[in-house]
Amino acid sequence: MPRVTKIVGPGNSYVTAAKKMVAFDCAIDMLAGPTEAIVFADYGNANFYASDLVAQAEHDPETLPIFVTSNARLAKDVSEAAMKMAEKNEIARQSLAANGVTLVASTIDEAFAWINAIGAEHLTVDAVNLPKVLDAGSVFVGEYSPQSLGDYASGPNHVLPTSGVARYRGGLSVLDYVKIISVQQVSKSGLKRIAPAVTLLAEAEGLQAHAESVRVRMK
Fold first, then answer.
1. CA nearest neighbour of 37 among 17, 72, 62, 70
2. 38: which strand partners?
3. Rounded Cα distance, 72 and 204, in Å
4. What angle do CA 158, 164, 170 make, to 5 degrees?
5. Mean pLDDT over residues 6-20, rounded?
């Protein structure tokens, strides 16, 4: 197979392992997986939120499904609803049993401190608290935006960061297919203005030829 410049796209643990193996031979978009889903809510329909967690949990037994709230009663209702919905879904049931978590925060600000620290692949929030989201792969706003829409129809793509990668990059986008080339052109008068800064820094690093390449143009 001929060498390529960059490999992008979704995949399972085998694809991720393959990407890792070739990451120093060609560029890759990111190492992604397993699936992560956080649902935040302080009010609303527990069945809606539970269904999102179960839907993402059925991807893989290693999926990380998390419900975050400051409403202890809602936390209990969502947890019970999710377990009931997953009764006949073996993969979802395994995922919830192994990795399912309900986090009850003291305040909404504390909840979003946790949410942003995790930086999950999928995140459901209400519109009021959307501005608090700093780190997430793909965000679903409101009770009528199930996360499964992003898997098939509503999202720009479904290649999303996991394992905290959302703290420093977003999902696959056009930026993964382009590169930025910087171009500089300086006039003689412009060079004269910035020459002192360049020569000072170059000499501080002990790079005399760098400084001289500026001075020779100023003579």
1. 62
2. 66, 123
3. 59
4. 40
5. 90
Q: Which residue has the tokens 């820094």?
A: 201
**What would the pLDDT profile of 192-207 be if each residue is shown by its tens digit?**
999 999 999 999 999 9
CA distances (Å), 180 to each of 57, 169, 176, 177, in order? Answer: 38, 16, 11, 10
Q: Specify whether the CB–CB gap between 118 and 38 falls below 8 A.
A: yes
d(CA 40, CA 44): 11
The pLDDT tens digits of the residues spanning 48-82 come to: 999 999 999 999 999 999 999 999 999 999 999 99
For residue 2, pLDDT beyond 90: no
| Number of neighbouring beta carbons within 10 Å of residue 15 | 15
CB count within 10 Å of CB 64 equals: 22
Predicted structure pTM score: 0.87
Distance CA 93, CA 84 (A): 9
Residue 200 DSSP code: H
Q: Where are the alpha helices (DSSP H) in 86-175?
A: 90-99, 108-118, 148-152
Under 8 Å CB-to-CB from 55, ≥6 apart: which residues?
37, 92, 146, 147, 148
Active site residues: 121-122
Q: Among 146, 138, 121, which Cα is nearest to 41's?
A: 146
d(CA 206, CA 99): 54
